[in-house]
Amino acid sequence: MEIVAFLHALLVEPFVAMWQNPEFLLEVAIGGLLTGVMYSLVALGFVLIYKASGVFNFAQGTMVLFAALTFVGLLERGFPVWASFLLTALAMIAMAFVIERLVLRPLVNQDPIILFMATIGLTYFLEGFGQIVWGGDVHPLDIGIPKSPLIIGGVLINEFDLVAAAVCGVLVTVLAVFFQRTAIGRALRAVADDHQAALSVGIPLKNIWVIVWAVAGIVGLVAGILWGSNLGVQFSISLVALKALPVLILGGFTSVPGAIVGGLIIGVGEKVAEVFWTPATGGAIEDWFAYALALVFLLIRPQGLFGERIIERV
């Protein structure tokens, strides 16, 4: 009987609650969509570098953290918001030059696992360097975005989430156009396919890598400001990047639209599951739902919704 009651609570009661509270379900789903857009923004940094180098950048989460620490550190020292943003963006561009010269250039045409290990080392370096420069305390961040609730069409929406989603949406659109419509975007895709072939047709590999790491750094800056405004700038922000992994698995590691769709699916799924399945599971679904869903996708469609199936011929 206990098993029957558990299955009833797991498979029947949540759907009954959704059916009986459609407005509340819509409110939860919209909140999940807005959170999912912010997940997509973090995932975009991974996609940008993977498309240009074919390697998973383990340091992306730490880049988000370092950018947020630099931004809030400059604010605390009296710089205005616009100057702090500009100086931090310049710092991320300078970091791209340093990473290309000291880390990437010596490893051209090495196995992807070697580049991946290099990004792990970069992660710990940036964490330590950020702590030395800006300290390890939690820094509150307020950039003037209101956090009061709004009622739109009878649905309660957090104003901060709405603004953050709009910013992310604009940035995602710009990056999608950049990859699909510009010569540099096409060059990035060529470099990802084959480093040596790209060099042979005159594509400057070092310039491409600097550009893509700089863009990923600026994306990380925007993500860091938004997440820092929401959670406070602290070292746990780098853990937000872990939530981008299921997003990438769902959408595909090389797809900008995939990062968007994957983020929306994860955002809505975890919010709905947390609210409606908590009575049956005891809570904390939001912590593991994304990874469980990613595991299902790996078993069914490992290349993701928008990824290309890899066929190796021997």
Structure description:
The protein contains 14 helices and two strands; from the N terminus they run H-H-H-H-H-H-E-E-H-H-H-H-H-H-H-H. The N and C termini lie far apart (55 Å). It has a single domain, classed as ABC transporter involved in vitamin B12 uptake, BtuC, CATH 1.10.3470. With 314 residues, the protein is mainly alpha-helical. A two-stranded antiparallel sheet has the order 1-2. 75% of the residues lie in helices and 3% in strands.
Draw up the topology in text.
Layout: H1 2-11, H2 13-20, H3 22-53, H4 60-76, H5 81-104, H6 112-134, E1 149-152, E2 155-158, H7 159-181, H8 183-193, H9 195-200, H10 205-231, H11 240-251, H12 256-276, H13 278-281, H14 285-300
Antiparallel strand pairs: 1-2
Helix pairs in contact: 3-7, 3-8, 3-10, 3-11, 3-12, 4-5, 4-6, 4-10, 5-10, 7-8, 7-10, 8-10, 11-12, 11-14, 12-14
